[in-house]
């Protein structure tokens, strides 16, 4: 496989940070019908970071996530994951890359006719050839890892609370022991306590598993408490990416309203006190 494990690359986002880039996207243009949602977008994701992607409603955050994982076609641009150019890679190389990431969709997107354990085993069945008993053990391990009780294994999604669905979906995202997880609004729909617990879980998994996290979020608490870097999407591109301080200093009106508005000041004050 034409894989470069350790890439040191300059960054196009103006953050000035150089390091181990595991996703490098350049010139992404994605659209539907006549209009482009993303146009010439560049973004880098560094190994081991939690990157929070923010932006106004409908700016294309989920579209960006889906494009990076290959669920939406690009009109232009290139994506390199783990040093592999997705467009020129063989099918075998693409599948090897696919095994290295997991995804938690908005609302969890669990299969309603499958139990939690069976949901977690869907990616295992697709990518691994393991006996059922071993897949059962692995699924139980993932269930414990995300803080669900063992009896959740045989429950159906309709029997779970919103927080349990998110955890089960995270367990499925972790099924193949990925290096990278994509999370689409992981705390949306959770109450503040559930959201804070979910943030703690993501942070703990990042530390213990060495995960890299690409997280689309509207949740200011998550941004302030667990994100190492933030990328703000607007005008079909990344307006700014960097640490919170860098992003907050950007004069873009949406960024100013979002990070310096009343709600943001409350969150910042609360977090600085804790
Ligand atoms: N499959 C699709 N077909 C047509 N238009 C789409 C499709 N998917 C997304 N869009 C459009 O792309 C735009 C961006 O959508 P996207 O879901 O990425 O926004 P977002 O930034 O994640 O918004 P939100 O924060 O509200 O979830 C929207 O105008 C949406 O209607």
UniProtKB/TrEMBL annotation:
ABC transporter domain segment(s): 23-260
GO MF assignments: ATP binding; ATP hydrolysis activity
Entries under SMART domains matching the protein: AAA (SM00382)
Lineage top rank: taxon: Bacteria
Pfam families listed in its UniProt record: ABC_tran (PF00005)
Family statement: Belongs to the ABC transporter superfamily.
Protein name: ABC transporter ATP-binding protein
């Amino acid at each position: 496989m034409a894989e470069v494990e350790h890439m040191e690359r300059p960054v196009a986002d103006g953050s000035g940070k150089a390091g181990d880039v595991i996703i490098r996207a350049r010139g992404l243009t994605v659209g539907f019908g006549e209009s482009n949602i993303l146009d010439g977008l560049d973004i880098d994701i560094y190994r081991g970071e939690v990157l929070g992607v923010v932006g106004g409603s409908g700016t294309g955050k989920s579209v960006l996530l889906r494009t990076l994982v290959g669920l939406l076609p690009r009109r232009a641009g290139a994506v390199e994951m783990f040093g592999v150019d997705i467009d020129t890679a063989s099918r075998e190389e693409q599948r090897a890359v696919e095994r290295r990431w997991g995804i938690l969709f908005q609302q969890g997107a669990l299969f309603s006719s499958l139990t939690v354990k069976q949901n977690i085993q869907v990616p295992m069945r697709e990518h691994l050839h393991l006996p059922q008993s071993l897949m059962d053990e692995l699924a139980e391990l993932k269930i414990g890892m995300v803080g669900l009780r063992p009896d959740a294994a045989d429950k159906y999604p309709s029997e779970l609370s919103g927080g349990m669905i998110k955890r089960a979906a995270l367990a499925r995202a972790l099924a193949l022991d990925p290096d990278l997880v994509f999370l689409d609004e992981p705390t949306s729909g959770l109450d503040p306590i559930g959201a804070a617990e979910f943030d703690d879980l993501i942070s703990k998994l990042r530390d213990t598993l060495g995960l890299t996290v690409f997280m689309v979020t509207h949740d200011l608490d998550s941004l302030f408490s667990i994100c190492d870097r933030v990328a703000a999407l607007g005008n079909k591109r990344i307006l700014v990416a960097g640490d919170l301080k860098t992003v907050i200093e950007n004069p873009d009106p949406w960024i100013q309203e979002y990070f310096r508005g009343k709600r943001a000041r409350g969150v910042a004050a609360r977090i600085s006190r804790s």
